[in-house]
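Hello forum,

I keep getting stuck at the same step: I have a sequence, I want structure tokens, and every attempt I make locally crashes halfway through. Rather than fight my setup again tonight, could one of you with a working pipeline run this one for me? It's a single chain of 256 residues.
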Amino acid sequence: MAIPDYLISTPENVDLHLEFAGLGNRILACVIDTLLSYLMVVVVAGAAYGIYRILETFGFSETYREWVTIMLIAGFSFVSFMVIFGYFVFFEILWRGQTPGKRVVGIRVIESNGQPVSGSAVWIRNLVRSLDESLFLIGLLSMLIDRNERRLGDLAANTIVIRERPSHSSENLQLTATLSSEDSLDAGLITPQEYEILTNFLRRRKMMAATHRPEVAKKLSEHFRIKLNQDEAQVANNPEMFLEKIVLAYRARAED
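Reply #2:
Ran it on my machine without issues. Output:
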């Protein structure tokens, strides 16, 4: 079976080829995340029981113990709900489309236009999660039918889930640029696929024809200039230097 491919053409005519996560990877990531979230619930239950046992040793009256029991049950129910629901929202916002399970498997949620997933999209896709996981796993059926492997939450939030393969394209890069305090490059806006395209160009640029290399560099620099909201004059002076600085900023952010 051919690997599903998702093509995005930016206004600057830069094509991004994305590979869908695959049904098996998404199920595995979901299993890992579900186990982790329920493990957190078990820890909360243990803490609630420990508190009850500690209070019981003080010999409080039956009425007081009943009141404490009701409060602990209510607190446990609330915290458990927040853990199970908030787990996915918290990590997908914090890690820009990834949860611990998704990170282990190597997949990520992004916008259908290739941009990093927004907070509102994270909330929408997870609000619909309960519907996806009920009604005879309707979300699974939706992924099997939809050509872009989207569950109902993805359809509602206009998101897709893609595979992140380890990239070796940053090897053999000969970078001469340096980052300074004046360079305000928000590398968090750069998707892994865009970084892959960028490093591929920088690694192969010396093998390009002398007439073709500046054209590609200009096209890429214009794409990233608009995305990172950079001054046109500074980028135009040396497009390749600008692209090198983006790579350095991306690496620095990854190391933080």
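The mean pLDDT is 82. If your local run keeps crashing, start a new thread with the error log.
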